Amino acid sequence: MPDTSTPAAIRLNWLRETAPGHLETDLGLPVEREALPLALMALHPLQHCQEPDANRILAQIEAGLQSIECFEDLPQWMRMRLKNFFGPLFSQRQLDAARENFRLTRQVCDFIERKADQVKGDVELHVPYFGRKAWLRRFDCLSGLSFEFSADGRLVDRFAAACPIQHGIGQIATALVPAFQKTAGDSFTVALEHCRHTTAENARIALDQMLVDYGLTGALDGHTGELEVRLIVSVPHAACNAWIDTPFGRDANFIPVYSQFSAGIQQALRRWLGWIVFGDAPQYAQLNIVYALLAYQVTRPYIADTRSAFAYDVMEHEKMAALCRAAARRLPRKLALVEEYLRAAGHTQAAGMYAPERAAGIGAWLKNDAKVFPSLLASEGGIVDQSLELAQRFNLCVHAHQFSRAVEHFVTSIDRKLRAMLRRCGVFDPISPVLLAEIIAAMSLARGGPGPELELQLSSDSKTSVHRKTLTRCDSLSSM
């Protein structure tokens, strides 16, 4: 019998600002591999309602770029789209340049096809975000792309992925463009990842809050010795769509939604800071840093009941004193983890500094700490404020350049505040923007939608394991 199965497709995800005030988007567009050049030029049959035959469109383009007369014979809609992609086409010289750029585009697509042929089934392709400036030099940008498979099986440009800021801007712009266009996407995901090497024993401390929140507390069982940890946070289209028409002004849902949104961001910071700071086996002799970070992790997120504040005010001394007392009551389990690790490593004297019975004394010390603990809470407030501001901006963005600036401002601001937060903890290396994926998903959880999926890939001397779990609203609130 003939094979009637649907051929494997490339699912194109590409956001580009092709003109001032105009964004074009492909969010998971299923494209036959040989028709990928048409999709990049916005001429694929699924991108318009004019011509259903992709092969016929390709033949028309090749013929139309030969001369001005042939170009004028093309349908008007096709001429307009070719001009949008290649630029003005009024002279033979411009057509010659367009033919060369068409050849270059097909060359890029051929490379992508060869990569896609390495796997069976559909392949999710993510082309980096082309803002207005990038679009002006789009063919130079396209020729510089070099795609590799990410850990979660997506084809991404390896150079863009190696730049945390640019990769973060591209992923967040893709996630939020449905909110800007007020049109829900239904076939795309965004994902960010973080990888590092540590030991299985240290990972039990570094990943503790992560595993508790995601319900993966047994993930490290059986792992010993050197450990490679890869964390991938994926946000589905339904969670990204939750940013459409977020509450604004005097909306009755303003406080309930943003209170939960803020609490979700705070909880995400608690789990990710533990991994970022402790993941490289820090000097546990730095008691002021470790005590403050452990206390921060066990401090409950602030639940707002007014629109005036959505995070802790570190200048309220009575409130800070109450937080220190509450942290002291919850610290013993965290302290026991560090003590067990240090004793097993032979650091008996240092282990004594983390005995659970020291929790009350640590709480008293935190009350007088004027540096690390309050600065963590203050930076947290700044990240919450930036996230709330972003949600409100989408109610005001009208033009594409406003959207682009809002996303860029958000990503760079979060990066700057997170770096300041980590410098207090002695971490100075560039940080993967994986936290941004959790912030995007926090809005969905706040509005009753799906949460992010965590894929945890572990490879140690003793075994290899992969764990996946989707965060639900109940899970996200369980440790608050």
Summarize the structure.
The protein has 480 residues and is of the alpha+beta class. 53% of the residues lie in helices and 14% in strands.
Structure description:
- This protein folds into two domains: 154 residues, no CATH class; 311 residues, no CATH class.
- The strands form two sheets. The chain has a five-stranded mixed β-sheet, sandwiched between helices.
- It is elongated, with a radius of gyration of 25 Å.
- 44% of the residues are buried.
- Helices cover 53% and strands 14% of the residues.
- With 480 residues, it is α+β, with helices and mostly antiparallel strands.
- The N and C termini lie far apart (58 Å).
- A hairpin with a 3-residue loop joins strand 8 and strand 9.
Write the layout of secondary structure elements.
Layout: E1 9-19, E2 22-32, H1 36-40, H2 54-64, H3 68-72, H4 76-86, H5 92-116, E3 123-126, H6 132-136, H7 138-143, E4 147-149, E5 155-157, H8 158-161, H9 164-181, E6 189-199, H10 200-206, H11 208-214, E7 226-236, H12 237-240, H13 254-278, H14 287-298, H15 317-344, H16 348-352, H17 359-368, H18 372-393, H19 400-423, H20 434-446, E8 453-460, E9 464-470, H21 473-478
Helix pairs in contact: 9-19, 9-20, 10-13, 10-15, 11-13, 13-14, 13-18, 13-20, 14-15, 14-18, 15-17, 18-19
Helix-and-strand structural type: alpha+beta
Shape: elongated
Low-confidence stretches: none
Helical amount: 40-55%
Number of helical elements = 21
Provide the residue-averaged pLDDT.
91
According to DSSP, the number of beta strands is 9
